[in-house]
Design brief:
299 residues; mainly beta; 8-stranded antiparallel sheet; 1% helix
Amino acid sequence: MKKQILFAAASAALLLASCDKEGTNTQTFTTQSFNYITEVSPTGAPSGEVSVEAGIYKFGLDYNNSTVSMSAENLPSKVGVTSFSTQALAASQNSLMNITVDTKSTLMSDISVDNLTMAYSAYQVPQEYSDIPGIANQTIPYGGLYVVTRYTIGGNYLVRTIWSDMLFSGTTHTSFNDSGEENKGIGYRVILNSKDKKATMVIYDAQFAAQMPKLNLVLENLSVDFQPHAIVIRGNNVVAKYSEGGQLQENPNFPFDNIEFIIQGQNLTQATCNFSVAGKYNGAFDGSYILLTVPGTDK
């Protein structure tokens, strides 16, 4: 059966762009992420318990022949295979490439890997989302290359990639004293501790009412629930912190009565958030992981 692999990149220089046909022109890179692993129900939907394991992905680009090969390493033994590799896959030299391959002939493994989709992107932290003293700098893989991938193994397990440090942007609607605001400048950074199932959230340029100054707020010790269809982050009665003098200080003016941030979608790159602050501000966010390069592909 033919399967489709989708590659997308923000920088044409890192894709299979035109190059000198004389001599060898290849590039390899390795990126580490976390594999979000669930069982697959009879209908093909994710089900059962979730395991989050560190994973390694390697890519080989051949610019002269316009091909890409991929290998996955460090998969848990329970899925039936700890690694697999593809042969060189033909690719067009566009920023958006659709590649059709035969799974059995391209995978150097004795177990089937199906429904493989993948996108990779070069990434730099946007300037407006600057580092905050008291919070570790955003973790970026070597070379700034991230990979979004999803596939099933042996028809029994669904594997998707996530990261321990993710940044989301989109639209936040807030209400205060019967007036509402729409804000596209608020960013949400989620720092996951998968072992302890806890999260820290940074809300950049938080502004819940027109008269409120923009603030970078930090919410710590939020609970994390890894579900088959989503990552759910919650907190109640959390006093936000802000950075002052290189340290985080509590800001009693902005206690979050409750907050729920849900990461979802086929590739776990979409997000929604609902929150209430100080009994008077309410907010609702809808957006996507900042690496999502093809709008509407993860609904």
